[in-house]
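User: Predict the full complex structure for these chains.
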Amino acid sequence: MARMQKVRLGMIGGGEGAFIGAVHRNAFGLDGQYDLVCGAFSRDPGNNESTADSLGVERSRTYASWEDMLDKESALPEQQRMQVVSIVTPNHLHVPISVAAIKAGFHVFCEKPAGVGLGEVKDLQDLLHSTDRLYGLAHTYLGYPMVWQARHMVQSGMLGNIRKVFVEYPQGWLSANEETHNKQAKWRTDPSLAGGSGCMGDIGTHAFGLAEFVLDDAITALCGQLYTHIDDRQLDDDGAALIKTKKGATGVLIASQVCAGEENALKIKVYGDKGGLEWHQMEPNSVVYRPIGQPYQVFRAGLGQPGLCDEAVNRCRIPGGHPEGYLEAMANLYNDFAKAVRGDSNHTSSKANGVPGIKSGLRGMAFIDAMLASSDSDTKWETVSPVGTE
Amino acid sequence: MARMQKVRLGMIGGGEGAFIGAVHRNAFGLDGQYDLVCGAFSRDPGNNESTADSLGVERSRTYASWEDMLDKESALPEQQRMQVVSIVTPNHLHVPISVAAIKAGFHVFCEKPAGVGLGEVKDLQDLLHSTDRLYGLAHTYLGYPMVWQARHMVQSGMLGNIRKVFVEYPQGWLSANEETHNKQAKWRTDPSLAGGSGCMGDIGTHAFGLAEFVLDDAITALCGQLYTHIDDRQLDDDGAALIKTKKGATGVLIASQVCAGEENALKIKVYGDKGGLEWHQMEPNSVVYRPIGQPYQVFRAGLGQPGLCDEAVNRCRIPGGHPEGYLEAMANLYNDFAKAVRGDSNHTSSKANGVPGIKSGLRGMAFIDAMLASSDSDTKWETVSPVGTE
Amino acid sequence: MARMQKVRLGMIGGGEGAFIGAVHRNAFGLDGQYDLVCGAFSRDPGNNESTADSLGVERSRTYASWEDMLDKESALPEQQRMQVVSIVTPNHLHVPISVAAIKAGFHVFCEKPAGVGLGEVKDLQDLLHSTDRLYGLAHTYLGYPMVWQARHMVQSGMLGNIRKVFVEYPQGWLSANEETHNKQAKWRTDPSLAGGSGCMGDIGTHAFGLAEFVLDDAITALCGQLYTHIDDRQLDDDGAALIKTKKGATGVLIASQVCAGEENALKIKVYGDKGGLEWHQMEPNSVVYRPIGQPYQVFRAGLGQPGLCDEAVNRCRIPGGHPEGYLEAMANLYNDFAKAVRGDSNHTSSKANGVPGIKSGLRGMAFIDAMLASSDSDTKWETVSPVGTE
Amino acid sequence: MARMQKVRLGMIGGGEGAFIGAVHRNAFGLDGQYDLVCGAFSRDPGNNESTADSLGVERSRTYASWEDMLDKESALPEQQRMQVVSIVTPNHLHVPISVAAIKAGFHVFCEKPAGVGLGEVKDLQDLLHSTDRLYGLAHTYLGYPMVWQARHMVQSGMLGNIRKVFVEYPQGWLSANEETHNKQAKWRTDPSLAGGSGCMGDIGTHAFGLAEFVLDDAITALCGQLYTHIDDRQLDDDGAALIKTKKGATGVLIASQVCAGEENALKIKVYGDKGGLEWHQMEPNSVVYRPIGQPYQVFRAGLGQPGLCDEAVNRCRIPGGHPEGYLEAMANLYNDFAKAVRGDSNHTSSKANGVPGIKSGLRGMAFIDAMLASSDSDTKWETVSPVGTE
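Assistant: Here is the predicted structure of the four-chain assembly.
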């Protein structure tokens, strides 16, 4: 074996005050597979430079803009220049930067969503088809070992024929008007930065992607409604939909950012004709399995744990009982991406190989479009008689 | 204080092999407020008599039919004859027996649903308005102390203005074709006995009633879909709906009997602009309260427990940590009903006073009708683009 | 089958303001097996009469003293007089009343502990050996179905050879000086009424009895320490011990009434060389089973639930997911006792047959003596008398 | 602010097949504060080199022995040579390497325990007092934010005067004879490598250290017993002790590696005269707080979460609901250590400043000695030396 070469990574976005940039840095740092060699962290020069300093990035490779970064890094010798661009900007820049980076010859690992509209993401897909550059999308929850275990249970028939899926993603942090003072809230509720949907774009897409992944199935139709609860808020902060899948399952998808007091309570429940399963993001190291006619069982993450599929085991670092969490989940995506960059695997952008790619991005866009259309369309609300309420 | 006189009760239905009759007997026995003095437990003479024997009911007051029972009991001296009829038959008999019993001068405590159609239940309501006879409906979950506590939290403003409600009632016991061999499954899936809906009539009404009770609000519209998963099953076994309330909350209602492996997992979550709450029937002695800006709190049932409203305390028998359950919840309904029968309170059939009454029955009927209508109507299903799935 | 005859029961103690009397009344009422026909509820005439009134007991059979009750009931015709005396007084009266009742020809069902000293309980045992009267002891936790399931798992070898047992019973209600104003606290901390130990006598005996029952083994030695945390409190309110069993298991027993904020958190964990199990009284319908090399499993109480032994199923009334609790557990003891009284089974006082009897009483006394001796001594391991285990 | 310079770290131990070395690498990688510049990973040359290759360590700085590494690194220019030695060998080498490293001018971050005997650890302490080199000890659990929160609750009086502490650390992985085939089990049960205690040295010290840390108190006496359950196993695999603290609290400490089916279930419960708290390592992001007279509360880890002390917040990276785990806890220790190395804080080896140091090491040794003595003796209470508490 040759000596492992760390993958050289540059970051766009993620200056001080941002949230997800720091998460990505923890994630790619965890397993020692990456060197952060350059960045364009903020349009604000002071923020940009102090972020770079705090991260140990050299000033010579701290760039005033992402355009500048792509330009100058391209000019560096191959063994020195960055290999991967990590994009952690607001949503509206995801596609423009991805396109430019790929055209400049870099691999891209992008925070979700892939873009702010189906059209631009399709264009990105076309571009990817014409190159050998890699594209990864941070559907972080798909990095959890027990999400892979849940999918394995479905795929291997432990639940039988799937009938029902319930996925919910309640948060409470936008229960009041946060956008006047919270930077994260500000851009996430601004259509020019976040795209056409707020809550559904931000977290509904996670719920949707999780459901399709665990089910190994496509959601083909939905009947939903979006809501906005705060005066002057421009985008939805809450919504729900009845859903149907290609293979014939039905269910419900809920996403909300006004569920007061909830933290980040993504959950999925799946039921087939032989059993059910349940997974909660906030207790991510367990999958509850309920086979008909037996006591229910709890499969637990960790090295050496019984009953796990290879895909789950490969995403664990330590023995059971030593909890791994959200950062480890994202680190699993970055690790697989590093392997693909080094050519350790046959990962390509058109083939999901542990890392969600452009197809996941397209699915998210399709979901947002369908939710917006359904919510805007004529309702088929049925009146419940007021009898008994007088 | 005069010596407590036990309320004399007669039961219709509840022979050997039935489920809910035994539950009612446990419930009215628990607090020593009732004497079971007579019964028409089964149309099958052998079952009827052996049930009576096992319960210690005298043969002379064991009747071959409910018609016979109403008739003969009416003829007994006032101090001897039954005061309350407890109806635990299949649904289609609920109204006919209730009407006959009330006309014969008896109070009625009826297993839910009130009937099999809105029309007949309205007629029953009209009848009740014309008498002073009492009518109680076994919406058992409304007997739980912590359901009252949850309602109190909503009413007292601890959650602020209510925005969202999510109520779900997953069971798994009808995941396969049970109706060929399970008596309970058989009549519950037979439209001539159960009414026009299976799952929604059986447990959806519980979810609906719980939501309206906790919210102290009326669900005014819904958009839902019903499903039947077993070949030859004649009624729905699963469904879900988006819902809206009179006061402006929105949410989701789910009820299913094909959630493989689930026992009886009724749950409700409510969110307002100041906080949220959560209650699970399978762990009924806790209400989780999530006020914005504070650690979440768990209110616990039991005598001497902090933070409980009077309505909750009055429904507890023992100090916290000694779990009370489902039978105690139903016993709370029977207790309140006994007080009303004795005139200890101003309970009347037209005034919910701890015991759900005919109005709850009407609400359930209205819900079933709306679900059936919504499910049968033209859908507004929005297609999710297949993009990314190829 | 002959018509079931309710067992005629008289209660001593349990006047207004008492706790455990009401619990017993709920418990024997639940299944309709008993009629409360008489009582001596309180030495205070007013309390005695108002209690009788509220329970519907006739004045003619409401007695001023327990001596009077035994006397007068004995004189009644056999088909009328009480059959069972339920004793729910403070501890110091348990033996005197039990002895007198048995001599007068009544069966006895007594709140635990059996007495306040090993000597008097031995004398009671001798008396029981000379009669055919039945004696039941309210070790309520041994009425839980899942405690029987846990015992079954041990007995059937699902855990292999047992190595470890940890039992803990933390309560918080005596964290402050309650005895000045709380009647329950007052007598429980008074040596003349409660006996030589407070916490260990009151709840330590439950933990001890639970451990011996689940293990089907005897605790033979302990090394413990008792503490009293409140000024002027005369008895222990807290303690712990290392323990050893006859079959060679070791472990820890903890009981405390100063664990601030704890309700009634009795728990047991057992580990063998093939697996472990865990049961919590506050969530009594589950037993966690952890077989080596498999995902852990949760066995759930209820009719129709998978994996339960007969002894567990026989103690459930309703299907899984409808929680049964503490009152149901005690009701299970009363039910088995009623069967024995009627001669439905071969239950005798010298043979544990679903209801803990005098041997359980002796074990509790032996435990208290050993704890007091160990705590007072300099010796490390104090032998627990094998009395009651032969 | 100057550009952050990564701390240059060398690792001793942690070759392929080891467990804790990889954990340390995840931990120091997570926050990007360290560069792994050299290592002596294994005495086996093949393992050593392949480990180095897989980690990207240059062959020129991959050393055949730790002696060689200290020697050759000392000779490198100051800006190039390692600054910190991370020691992840079996226990018997901890002190020899620490001493040599400090004498060679390096800072030391050592896996626990500090050594295999109190004497050698005292000598190490003496050495540290004579230098300005830093010494950190990987008591990983003390890096969890909610452990700091628990300590804060105690220190700030939220529990009042502390009465009781119960700490337990059950594992199940040594329930059978693993030492014949499992490298981790092999050295941990070999006295020449692990020291005089197995389970107590390995995990009992964690339980002990956690209790002292949360209580901010010293355990002064214990009365305990050790057990060995597997034939031919040379060290204890299980034990428990009654404990007393300097400030007057009492309680129980349990540690076992034969609790079949348990993963890594370290828990602590503390009770004072105003309330109690509870923390579980396997659900590390919550502390349950039970104030007398109020519903119990759950404090949750994460940025922006209510009620957290600064020490807890400073150890969180992401908002509540995104679980952080065991690796993050150890990373918190490495981060604080990096700050101290850079002189960002006034951390010194003699002053606990976020990172457990040599005093924690001494406490662990004192605990092991007391447990061994108590278990071997006939005396009831064995004094725990106050060494390290001044």
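Confidence is low (pLDDT under 50) at residues 345-352 of chain C.
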